[in-house]
């Protein structure tokens, strides 16, 4: 498989990791991606540090997997 196709697949995986970090809802993102929650967890294990670093550079905040009401409100106020 040519490297370009692999890069595209990696970018898609990173986008789903980012969405999971932004929303804190792995189950919903996995369903949208058509993958199992475990597959998304594996992608997160591979790409989370890289994606978080990029998000920090952009000033984007993340939510925990099970955000508290306070965390949700704080995140909404930042936007």
From TrEMBL:
Residues 54-79 are annotated as: Disordered. This is Insertion element IS150 protein InsJ-like helix-turn-helix domain-containing protein. The lineage of its organism: Bacteria, Bacillati, Bacillota, Bacilli, Bacillales. Residues 13-48 form the Insertion element IS150 protein InsJ-like helix-turn-helix domain. It comes from the Bacteria.
């Amino acid at each position: 498989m040519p490297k370009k196709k692999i890069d595209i697949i990696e970018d898609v995986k990173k986008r789903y990791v980012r969405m999971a970090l932004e929303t804190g809802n792995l189950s919903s993102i996995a369903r949208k991606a058509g993958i199992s929650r475990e597959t998304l967890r594996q992608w997160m294990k591979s790409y989370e540090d890289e994606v978080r670093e990029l998000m920090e550079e952009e000033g984007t905040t993340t939510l925990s997997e099970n955000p508290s009401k306070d965390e949700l409100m704080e995140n909404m106020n930042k936007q």
